[in-house]
Amino acid sequence: MIEDKNQQRTSLENLGEFGLIEHLTKNFDIKHKSTIKSIGDDAAVLEFKTNQIVVTTDLLIENVHFDLSYVPLKHLGYKAVVVNLSDVYAMNANATQITVSIAVSNRFPLEALEDLYAGIEAAAKIYNIDVIGGDTTSSTTGLIISVTAIGAVDEKNVVLRSGAKANDLVVVTGDIGASYMGLQVLEREKEVFKVNPQNQPDLSMYSYIIERQLKPEARKDVIELLKSLDVKPTSMIDISDGLSSEIIHLCKNSDVGVELYENKIPLDPQVISTCEEFNIDSTTIALNGGEDYELLMTISQEDFPKIKGNPNLTVIGYITEKSRGMHLITRGEQAIPIIAKGWNAMKNEV
Amino acid sequence: MIEDKNQQRTSLENLGEFGLIEHLTKNFDIKHKSTIKSIGDDAAVLEFKTNQIVVTTDLLIENVHFDLSYVPLKHLGYKAVVVNLSDVYAMNANATQITVSIAVSNRFPLEALEDLYAGIEAAAKIYNIDVIGGDTTSSTTGLIISVTAIGAVDEKNVVLRSGAKANDLVVVTGDIGASYMGLQVLEREKEVFKVNPQNQPDLSMYSYIIERQLKPEARKDVIELLKSLDVKPTSMIDISDGLSSEIIHLCKNSDVGVELYENKIPLDPQVISTCEEFNIDSTTIALNGGEDYELLMTISQEDFPKIKGNPNLTVIGYITEKSRGMHLITRGEQAIPIIAKGWNAMKNEV
Questions:
Q1: Whose C-alpha in A139, B20, B314, B318 is 20 to 30 A from the C-alpha of A287?
Q2: A43 and B91: CB-CB below 8 Å?
Q3: What ranges do the domains of chain A cover?
Q4: CA–CA distance from B244 to each of A42, B21, B238, B297, B347 (Å)?
Q5: Do B41 and A149 touch (CB under 8 A)?
């Protein structure tokens, strides 16, 4: 729908597993000294100077996590990497290596996998990580991508979900809700396309929110920014499931309560206008939209002067004693309990 | 077919992702000091005393890698762990942690996943590894399992595929070909079952080969044995795709040739008798059967006295200069070129 470039189709069947891995990863260079041995043995060998490492993994399934009728494969490869790196940065660690496993059915030609790996390579280059291994296999149905990401961190710098204390400030990076609204636009255009395949929609007024959905970025820059500002968050999590779901994780793990202010939640103008167009409340989207891959953190009040006025960091509330519960203070100054919904739940509803 | 215990069926839909992970992993204990933070944050945190780690990953897809009509889920969980640990041991490393991601369709009740995780837990206990993370998601069709395994190793002990030298001895652990023949028996019984579901086959004469297929073990014991014998192999690989495919990997990576002796290849009597019954050549099965998860290694000739007579280790040939090529010397003393086939290729043929 968005792009159609099936000029050439080379069947995977004649390549075999070993030929395929070699072919797809032949351009991947090694950037880190910590990568001693990459693809090509029973396992990769790594060696770290820092004393701790972090490990995270995600599984992406066609028609559950992505719809190839509007997600270009190159974007998908990029996003599959980024969503994992986001978890590494949420530990305040430096992402260094990933493994990528894919299962594909025979309906994918080699050129499709080359597009997918071009996206993986682009992300590896931009985020400065090595692709050190993986598995390539056949699937009876669609495309499956499994990524495991590894990062390095000094013990004293690790930030868990469990460190928030009463009176800490709640800080969110960037703006939220855009990815979910981008998805709504893409889903609508897919329906239009079904009725009229000749239709060439003008999506320029949605460019920001569609890019947030199709090609999200992980906040590596924020980890570097915090370091340069000499701010170590007391707790941190990445926003993959929506602000409400993530703040509940932080509060439960830290055994605290929270007050968030509706009027402080950073929204892009395109989110607001698209919410109006779709007749959806933008705060609901910000709370439950998900897939923003921004960071949600708490910082000590004494660090506030260091972040004050920084356009990447917005204070949206503060941590309370657990007994106070978890509330959103609306523009009308009402305190509404925060409930976990998450975008998966919304998907079934909307 | 082998077991049918669908007494209770709890739907996954009401549990949600977070509830499901918590429920399935609640019995998993942490055994290693290197596991600083396990399941429950954006990423796991690990800290190693040894200076290098190894990382490997595998993706298992229903109806490609396993058939639930005869593979009990508990065995499948066990095997999914073991096949990854085998790659860690093939680096001469000590397996310490795994992540496990699964995607399941709604046709699986909670009880099925509990069986799967019981197998994962059993393997984690026997092999002394920590389950430190993973992802649980829905699938539009079958069951998908992605495991990443991590091991620790001192730099001086790492064994790659690339270290074999001319005159080194080629050594294989245990016996090979059994897993593939076990699969043949199970496939045959599946066809019988389709015709007559009331049939209760007596599979006791195939017990060894069926167990090798359904519940293989990784050779952790061999890694410990080699250490106690003070033998460091010059190269090593695990046998997942068949002896011929693996020896070609070792030779290509080490830039050497090889001569293997047909009459030295260790076969279990049950493999020989079942091959006769199926009218298949047992050497063909040993060379191309796969899924044995034994180790194939090369050792320096001066280490031969240390391993001589050990029932776990069989010398099956020796490494030559590359120019000599790769050959199997048959019982009739003919030199036949070794060709990579691998069990996936066989699967399409047989």
A1: B20
A2: yes
A3: 16-157, 169-345
A4: 16, 40, 12, 13, 15
A5: no
